[in-house]
Design brief:
heterodimer; A: about 170 residues; alpha+beta; 2 domains; five-stranded mixed beta sheet; 7 helices; about 55% helix; B: about 220 residues; Ubiquitin-like (UB roll); Alpha-Beta Plaits; 5 helices; 9 strands; about 15% strand; globular
Chain lengths: ~170, ~220
Protein backbone atom coordinates (compact mmCIF):
# COMPACT_ATOMS: atom_id res chain seq x y z
CA UNK A 1 0.00 0.00 0.00
CA UNK A 2 2.81 2.39 0.97
CA UNK A 3 4.50 1.47 -2.28
CA UNK A 4 1.39 2.50 -4.20
CA UNK A 5 1.09 5.81 -2.32
CA UNK A 6 4.73 6.53 -3.12
CA UNK A 7 4.12 5.79 -6.80
CA UNK A 8 1.08 8.08 -6.88
CA UNK A 9 3.05 10.92 -5.31
CA UNK A 10 6.03 10.44 -7.61
CA UNK A 11 4.06 10.22 -10.86
CA UNK A 12 1.72 13.10 -9.99
CA UNK A 13 4.69 15.27 -9.06
CA UNK A 14 6.41 14.40 -12.31
CA UNK A 15 3.35 15.48 -14.35
CA UNK A 16 2.81 18.67 -12.35
CA UNK A 17 6.43 19.67 -12.92
CA UNK A 18 5.68 20.12 -16.60
CA UNK A 19 2.72 22.48 -16.15
CA UNK A 20 2.22 26.06 -15.00
CA UNK A 21 -0.21 26.80 -12.17
CA UNK A 22 -3.00 27.99 -14.49
CA UNK A 23 -6.44 26.55 -13.72
CA UNK A 24 -6.95 26.03 -17.44
CA UNK A 25 -4.37 23.25 -17.18
CA UNK A 26 -6.65 21.13 -15.01
CA UNK A 27 -7.92 18.78 -17.71
CA UNK A 28 -4.55 18.21 -19.45
CA UNK A 29 -3.01 17.48 -16.01
CA UNK A 30 -5.78 15.00 -15.16
CA UNK A 31 -5.32 13.27 -18.52
CA UNK A 32 -1.56 12.95 -18.09
CA UNK A 33 -1.82 11.67 -14.52
CA UNK A 34 -4.43 9.11 -15.54
CA UNK A 35 -2.23 8.06 -18.45
CA UNK A 36 0.60 7.27 -16.03
CA UNK A 37 -1.38 5.72 -13.19
CA UNK A 38 -4.32 4.23 -15.06
CA UNK A 39 -6.75 6.11 -12.82
CA UNK A 40 -7.09 9.20 -10.65
CA UNK A 41 -6.65 8.32 -7.01
CA UNK A 42 -7.90 10.57 -4.24
CA UNK A 43 -4.36 11.66 -3.26
CA UNK A 44 -3.57 12.71 -6.84
CA UNK A 45 -6.74 14.83 -7.04
CA UNK A 46 -5.85 16.56 -3.76
CA UNK A 47 -2.29 17.18 -4.95
CA UNK A 48 -3.56 18.70 -8.23
CA UNK A 49 -6.01 20.96 -6.37
CA UNK A 50 -3.19 22.21 -4.14
CA UNK A 51 -0.93 22.79 -7.16
CA UNK A 52 -3.55 24.85 -9.05
CA UNK A 53 -4.78 26.54 -5.86
CA UNK A 54 -8.41 25.62 -6.47
CA UNK A 55 -10.89 23.93 -4.08
CA UNK A 56 -10.54 20.15 -4.23
CA UNK A 57 -14.25 19.81 -4.97
CA UNK A 58 -13.63 21.56 -8.29
CA UNK A 59 -11.20 18.82 -9.33
CA UNK A 60 -13.67 16.21 -8.12
CA UNK A 61 -16.47 17.89 -10.08
CA UNK A 62 -14.49 17.71 -13.34
CA UNK A 63 -13.36 14.11 -12.73
CA UNK A 64 -16.91 12.91 -12.07
CA UNK A 65 -18.33 14.90 -14.99
CA UNK A 66 -16.27 13.39 -17.79
CA UNK A 67 -16.54 9.72 -18.68
CA UNK A 68 -12.87 9.58 -19.70
CA UNK A 69 -11.75 9.92 -16.08
CA UNK A 70 -11.84 6.97 -13.70
CA UNK A 71 -11.50 7.06 -9.95
CA UNK A 72 -10.72 3.38 -9.52
CA UNK A 73 -7.68 1.42 -10.68
CA UNK A 74 -8.24 -0.59 -13.86
CA UNK A 75 -8.75 -4.33 -13.29
CA UNK A 76 -6.87 -7.06 -15.12
CA UNK A 77 -9.98 -7.64 -17.22
CA UNK A 78 -12.28 -4.86 -18.38
CA UNK A 79 -16.03 -5.46 -18.60
CA UNK A 80 -17.98 -2.91 -20.66
CA UNK A 81 -21.72 -3.39 -20.79
CA UNK A 82 -23.36 -1.77 -23.80
CA UNK A 83 -26.42 0.31 -23.01
CA UNK A 84 -27.04 1.64 -26.51
CA UNK A 85 -30.57 1.70 -27.89
CA UNK A 86 -30.62 -1.84 -29.28
CA UNK A 87 -28.90 -3.32 -26.22
CA UNK A 88 -31.26 -1.41 -23.97
CA UNK A 89 -34.26 -2.89 -25.79
CA UNK A 90 -32.77 -6.37 -25.41
CA UNK A 91 -32.30 -5.87 -21.67
CA UNK A 92 -28.75 -4.51 -21.40
CA UNK A 93 -29.58 -3.07 -17.99
CA UNK A 94 -30.49 -6.57 -16.77
CA UNK A 95 -27.09 -7.76 -17.96
CA UNK A 96 -25.48 -4.85 -16.13
CA UNK A 97 -27.32 -5.86 -12.96
CA UNK A 98 -26.07 -9.42 -13.41
CA UNK A 99 -22.47 -8.23 -13.69
CA UNK A 100 -22.90 -6.00 -10.65
CA UNK A 101 -24.31 -8.88 -8.63
CA UNK A 102 -21.71 -11.43 -9.73
CA UNK A 103 -18.70 -9.14 -9.29
CA UNK A 104 -20.21 -7.46 -6.25
CA UNK A 105 -19.22 -3.99 -7.47
CA UNK A 106 -21.01 -0.97 -8.91
CA UNK A 107 -20.62 0.80 -12.20
CA UNK A 108 -17.19 2.42 -12.56
CA UNK A 109 -15.71 0.26 -9.80
CA UNK A 110 -13.03 -2.41 -9.59
CA UNK A 111 -13.13 -5.68 -7.64
CA UNK A 112 -10.99 -5.78 -4.48
CA UNK A 113 -8.58 -8.30 -6.08
CA UNK A 114 -8.24 -6.00 -9.11
CA UNK A 115 -9.29 -8.79 -11.46
CA UNK A 116 -12.29 -7.00 -13.06
CA UNK A 117 -13.48 -3.46 -13.60
CA UNK A 118 -17.03 -2.73 -14.66
CA UNK A 119 -18.41 0.15 -16.71
CA UNK A 120 -20.95 0.93 -19.42
CA UNK A 121 -20.60 2.11 -23.02
CA UNK A 122 -23.15 3.91 -25.18
CA UNK A 123 -22.86 1.77 -28.33
CA UNK A 124 -20.12 -0.38 -29.81
CA UNK A 125 -21.58 -0.63 -33.30
CA UNK A 126 -22.65 -4.27 -33.42
CA UNK A 127 -26.32 -3.95 -32.53
CA UNK A 128 -27.28 -7.27 -34.18
CA UNK A 129 -25.42 -8.99 -31.34
CA UNK A 130 -27.43 -7.22 -28.63
CA UNK A 131 -27.20 -7.32 -25.68
CA UNK A 132 -23.46 -6.84 -26.01
CA UNK A 133 -20.76 -6.85 -23.35
CA UNK A 134 -17.22 -5.96 -24.39
CA UNK A 135 -14.85 -8.20 -22.45
CA UNK A 136 -11.20 -7.15 -22.73
CA UNK A 137 -11.89 -5.21 -25.95
CA UNK A 138 -13.71 -8.17 -27.53
CA UNK A 139 -17.46 -7.75 -28.07
CA UNK A 140 -19.43 -10.74 -26.79
CA UNK A 141 -22.84 -11.45 -28.32
CA UNK A 142 -26.14 -12.11 -26.54
CA UNK A 143 -24.77 -11.58 -23.07
CA UNK A 144 -27.69 -12.42 -20.87
CA UNK A 145 -27.28 -13.19 -17.15
CA UNK A 146 -26.51 -16.89 -17.82
CA UNK A 147 -23.80 -15.89 -20.29
CA UNK A 148 -22.33 -13.61 -17.59
CA UNK A 149 -21.86 -16.69 -15.44
CA UNK A 150 -20.34 -18.52 -18.42
CA UNK A 151 -17.78 -15.79 -19.11
CA UNK A 152 -16.78 -15.64 -15.47
CA UNK A 153 -16.48 -19.42 -15.33
CA UNK A 154 -14.12 -19.35 -18.32
CA UNK A 155 -11.89 -16.84 -16.53
CA UNK A 156 -11.97 -19.00 -13.43
CA UNK A 157 -10.91 -22.10 -15.42
CA UNK A 158 -8.09 -20.18 -17.05
CA UNK A 159 -6.85 -19.01 -13.68
CA UNK A 160 -6.96 -22.54 -12.28
CA UNK A 161 -5.05 -23.86 -15.28
CA UNK A 162 -2.33 -21.26 -14.91
CA UNK A 163 -2.14 -21.94 -11.19
CA UNK A 164 -1.68 -25.66 -11.87
CA UNK A 165 1.00 -25.07 -14.51
CA UNK A 166 2.88 -22.79 -12.14
CA UNK A 167 2.82 -25.46 -9.46
CA UNK A 168 3.99 -28.17 -11.84
CA UNK A 169 6.86 -26.11 -13.20
CA UNK A 170 8.13 -25.13 -9.74
CA UNK B 1 -23.94 57.09 -13.42
CA UNK B 2 -25.66 56.80 -16.78
CA UNK B 3 -29.27 55.73 -16.67
CA UNK B 4 -31.81 54.31 -19.08
CA UNK B 5 -35.58 54.43 -18.89
CA UNK B 6 -37.69 51.41 -19.66
CA UNK B 7 -41.18 50.06 -19.13
CA UNK B 8 -41.89 46.90 -17.17
CA UNK B 9 -45.49 45.73 -17.01
CA UNK B 10 -46.66 49.22 -17.93
CA UNK B 11 -44.58 50.94 -15.26
CA UNK B 12 -41.94 53.51 -16.25
CA UNK B 13 -38.66 52.70 -14.54
CA UNK B 14 -35.27 54.45 -14.48
CA UNK B 15 -32.36 52.03 -14.18
CA UNK B 16 -28.60 52.13 -14.15
CA UNK B 17 -27.08 51.37 -17.52
CA UNK B 18 -25.60 47.89 -17.88
CA UNK B 19 -27.76 46.29 -15.18
CA UNK B 20 -29.54 43.03 -15.88
CA UNK B 21 -33.29 43.22 -16.28
CA UNK B 22 -33.98 40.77 -13.44
CA UNK B 23 -32.35 42.97 -10.79
CA UNK B 24 -34.07 46.11 -12.07
CA UNK B 25 -37.46 44.40 -11.86
CA UNK B 26 -36.83 42.94 -8.40
CA UNK B 27 -35.51 46.28 -7.06
CA UNK B 28 -38.70 47.95 -8.23
CA UNK B 29 -40.96 45.45 -6.55
CA UNK B 30 -41.82 43.48 -9.68
CA UNK B 31 -41.32 39.80 -8.92
CA UNK B 32 -39.86 37.51 -11.56
CA UNK B 33 -39.32 33.87 -10.47
CA UNK B 34 -35.64 33.00 -10.15
CA UNK B 35 -33.43 30.48 -8.35
CA UNK B 36 -29.91 30.50 -9.78
CA UNK B 37 -29.44 34.27 -10.14
CA UNK B 38 -26.61 35.73 -8.03
CA UNK B 39 -26.20 39.49 -8.05
CA UNK B 40 -22.51 39.52 -7.25
CA UNK B 41 -21.64 36.94 -9.89
CA UNK B 42 -19.96 38.41 -12.99
CA UNK B 43 -21.72 35.95 -15.29
CA UNK B 44 -25.32 34.82 -14.82
CA UNK B 45 -25.62 31.03 -14.71
CA UNK B 46 -29.01 31.21 -16.48
CA UNK B 47 -29.57 27.61 -15.46
CA UNK B 48 -32.97 27.57 -13.78
CA UNK B 49 -34.91 28.89 -16.81
CA UNK B 50 -37.56 30.45 -14.59
CA UNK B 51 -37.06 34.18 -15.24
CA UNK B 52 -38.42 34.25 -18.80
CA UNK B 53 -39.98 37.57 -19.86
CA UNK B 54 -41.15 39.03 -23.14
CA UNK B 55 -39.41 42.06 -24.61
CA UNK B 56 -41.24 44.04 -27.29
CA UNK B 57 -39.58 43.59 -30.67
CA UNK B 58 -38.07 40.21 -29.77
CA UNK B 59 -39.72 37.17 -31.20
CA UNK B 60 -38.83 34.72 -28.46
CA UNK B 61 -38.96 35.22 -24.68
CA UNK B 62 -35.62 35.98 -23.01
CA UNK B 63 -34.22 35.18 -19.57
CA UNK B 64 -34.31 38.37 -17.49
CA UNK B 65 -31.06 37.48 -15.72
CA UNK B 66 -29.03 37.64 -18.95
CA UNK B 67 -30.83 40.57 -20.61
CA UNK B 68 -29.18 43.96 -20.11
CA UNK B 69 -31.58 46.89 -19.79
CA UNK B 70 -31.76 49.26 -22.76
CA UNK B 71 -33.28 52.66 -23.44
CA UNK B 72 -36.95 52.45 -24.36
CA UNK B 73 -37.20 48.72 -23.64
CA UNK B 74 -40.76 47.48 -23.14
CA UNK B 75 -40.99 44.38 -20.96
CA UNK B 76 -43.93 42.15 -20.16
CA UNK B 77 -43.24 39.74 -17.29
CA UNK B 78 -46.62 38.04 -17.65
CA UNK B 79 -46.57 37.26 -21.35
CA UNK B 80 -48.17 33.98 -22.38
CA UNK B 81 -45.13 32.59 -24.19
CA UNK B 82 -42.75 33.51 -21.37
CA UNK B 83 -44.95 32.03 -18.67
CA UNK B 84 -45.37 28.84 -20.67
CA UNK B 85 -41.60 28.34 -20.73
CA UNK B 86 -41.21 29.21 -17.05
CA UNK B 87 -44.06 26.88 -16.08
CA UNK B 88 -42.55 23.98 -17.99
CA UNK B 89 -39.17 24.57 -16.35
CA UNK B 90 -40.81 24.69 -12.94
CA UNK B 91 -42.82 21.53 -13.55
CA UNK B 92 -39.68 19.69 -14.65
CA UNK B 93 -37.95 20.82 -11.47
CA UNK B 94 -40.85 19.71 -9.30
CA UNK B 95 -41.11 16.33 -11.04
CA UNK B 96 -38.02 15.22 -9.11
CA UNK B 97 -38.72 17.11 -5.89
CA UNK B 98 -40.15 15.32 -2.86
CA UNK B 99 -43.14 17.50 -1.96
CA UNK B 100 -43.55 17.22 1.80
CA UNK B 101 -44.11 20.83 2.79
CA UNK B 102 -45.73 20.05 6.15
CA UNK B 103 -42.64 18.13 7.26
CA UNK B 104 -40.07 20.45 5.69
CA UNK B 105 -38.11 23.05 7.68
CA UNK B 106 -38.39 25.52 4.80
CA UNK B 107 -42.20 25.49 4.83
CA UNK B 108 -43.54 29.01 4.20
CA UNK B 109 -40.07 30.45 3.57
CA UNK B 110 -39.50 28.18 0.57
CA UNK B 111 -38.80 29.84 -2.76
CA UNK B 112 -40.52 26.97 -4.57
CA UNK B 113 -43.79 27.68 -2.78
CA UNK B 114 -43.49 31.33 -3.76
CA UNK B 115 -42.81 30.49 -7.41
CA UNK B 116 -45.64 27.97 -7.44
CA UNK B 117 -48.03 30.68 -6.27
CA UNK B 118 -46.70 33.23 -8.71
CA UNK B 119 -46.84 30.95 -11.77
CA UNK B 120 -50.08 29.33 -10.60
CA UNK B 121 -48.61 25.87 -11.00
CA UNK B 122 -49.22 23.20 -8.39
CA UNK B 123 -46.18 21.94 -6.45
CA UNK B 124 -47.17 18.38 -7.26
CA UNK B 125 -47.20 18.33 -11.02
CA UNK B 126 -49.77 16.11 -12.70
CA UNK B 127 -48.57 16.60 -16.25
CA UNK B 128 -45.19 14.94 -15.70
CA UNK B 129 -44.32 11.61 -14.18
CA UNK B 130 -42.61 11.94 -10.81
CA UNK B 131 -39.03 10.67 -10.77
CA UNK B 132 -37.36 11.03 -7.38
CA UNK B 133 -33.61 10.83 -6.91
CA UNK B 134 -33.74 8.98 -3.59
CA UNK B 135 -30.33 10.11 -2.37
CA UNK B 136 -29.20 9.57 1.23
CA UNK B 137 -29.63 12.49 3.64
CA UNK B 138 -26.37 13.80 5.15
CA UNK B 139 -26.97 14.16 8.87
CA UNK B 140 -23.31 14.10 9.89
CA UNK B 141 -22.82 17.78 10.62
CA UNK B 142 -23.59 18.90 14.19
CA UNK B 143 -25.29 22.13 13.12
CA UNK B 144 -27.24 21.38 9.98
CA UNK B 145 -28.77 18.70 7.77
CA UNK B 146 -28.30 18.38 4.03
CA UNK B 147 -31.04 16.68 2.05
CA UNK B 148 -29.85 16.50 -1.58
CA UNK B 149 -33.31 15.33 -2.68
CA UNK B 150 -34.69 18.80 -1.99
CA UNK B 151 -31.81 20.54 -3.75
CA UNK B 152 -32.66 22.39 -6.97
CA UNK B 153 -28.99 22.80 -8.03
CA UNK B 154 -29.20 26.60 -8.04
CA UNK B 155 -25.58 26.89 -6.90
CA UNK B 156 -26.14 29.66 -4.34
CA UNK B 157 -24.57 27.70 -1.47
CA UNK B 158 -21.38 26.92 -3.32
CA UNK B 159 -21.15 30.52 -4.47
CA UNK B 160 -21.14 31.87 -0.89
CA UNK B 161 -18.87 29.07 0.28
CA UNK B 162 -16.29 29.65 -2.42
CA UNK B 163 -16.51 33.19 -3.77
CA UNK B 164 -17.56 35.09 -0.70
CA UNK B 165 -15.90 33.13 2.08
CA UNK B 166 -13.09 31.49 0.14
CA UNK B 167 -13.66 28.08 1.71
CA UNK B 168 -14.90 25.99 -1.18
CA UNK B 169 -16.20 22.91 0.61
CA UNK B 170 -19.31 22.60 -1.56
CA UNK B 171 -19.41 22.12 -5.30
CA UNK B 172 -21.18 20.38 -8.15
CA UNK B 173 -20.20 16.81 -9.03
CA UNK B 174 -21.40 13.97 -11.29
CA UNK B 175 -23.49 14.50 -14.38
CA UNK B 176 -27.02 14.54 -15.69
CA UNK B 177 -29.69 13.21 -13.34
CA UNK B 178 -26.91 12.20 -10.91
CA UNK B 179 -25.68 15.79 -10.58
CA UNK B 180 -25.49 16.87 -6.94
CA UNK B 181 -24.11 19.55 -4.71
CA UNK B 182 -21.57 17.67 -2.65
CA UNK B 183 -18.13 17.68 -1.03
CA UNK B 184 -14.83 16.24 -2.26
CA UNK B 185 -15.21 12.47 -2.78
CA UNK B 186 -18.83 12.80 -1.57
CA UNK B 187 -17.58 12.82 2.02
CA UNK B 188 -20.05 13.55 4.82
CA UNK B 189 -20.21 17.28 5.63
CA UNK B 190 -19.29 16.54 9.23
CA UNK B 191 -15.84 15.44 8.06
CA UNK B 192 -15.29 18.34 5.67
CA UNK B 193 -13.42 21.61 6.15
CA UNK B 194 -16.75 23.37 6.84
CA UNK B 195 -16.21 26.37 9.13
CA UNK B 196 -19.81 26.45 10.32
CA UNK B 197 -20.63 29.99 9.19
CA UNK B 198 -24.12 28.88 8.16
CA UNK B 199 -24.23 31.18 5.14
CA UNK B 200 -25.05 28.33 2.76
CA UNK B 201 -28.14 27.59 4.84
CA UNK B 202 -29.17 31.24 4.75
CA UNK B 203 -29.02 31.40 0.95
CA UNK B 204 -30.61 28.00 0.24
CA UNK B 205 -33.96 28.69 -1.46
CA UNK B 206 -35.42 25.33 -0.40
CA UNK B 207 -35.19 23.02 2.59
CA UNK B 208 -32.13 21.19 1.25
CA UNK B 209 -29.81 22.85 3.76
CA UNK B 210 -31.43 23.49 7.13
CA UNK B 211 -30.40 24.00 10.74
CA UNK B 212 -30.98 21.01 12.97
CA UNK B 213 -32.54 23.19 15.66
CA UNK B 214 -35.29 24.66 13.51
CA UNK B 215 -35.99 27.37 16.10
CA UNK B 216 -32.57 28.83 15.46
CA UNK B 217 -32.69 31.47 12.75
CA UNK B 218 -29.95 31.91 10.16
CA UNK B 219 -26.84 33.38 11.76
CA UNK B 220 -27.03 36.52 9.65
CA UNK B 221 -28.76 37.84 6.60
CA UNK B 222 -26.60 36.99 3.63
CA UNK B 223 -26.72 39.04 0.46
CA UNK B 224 -25.55 37.49 -2.75
Amino acid sequence: MAEEAEKIRRETGRVLGRFSRKRGNLIPILQKVQHRLGYLPREAMLEIARFLDIPEIEVYGVVTFYNQFRRNPPGKHSIRVCLGTACHMKGGYITLDAWKRRLNIGQGETTADREFDLDTVACVGCCTMAPVTVVDDKPQANVEPTRVDGILLAFEREREKKHKENRESS
Amino acid sequence: MKTVSLTIDGRKIIAEEGTKLLWVALDNGIYIPNLCAIRSSPEPAAACRLCFVEVAGKEAPVTACTETVAEGMVVNTRGKKALRLARSAFELLMASHPVDCAGCPANRSCELQKISGHLKVKLKTKRLRTLLRELPIDDSHPLFTYDPNKCVLCGRCLWVCRQQLGIGVLGFAHRGFQRVVTTFADEPLGQSRCQECGDCIAVCPTGALSFKDSAKPAARAVKI
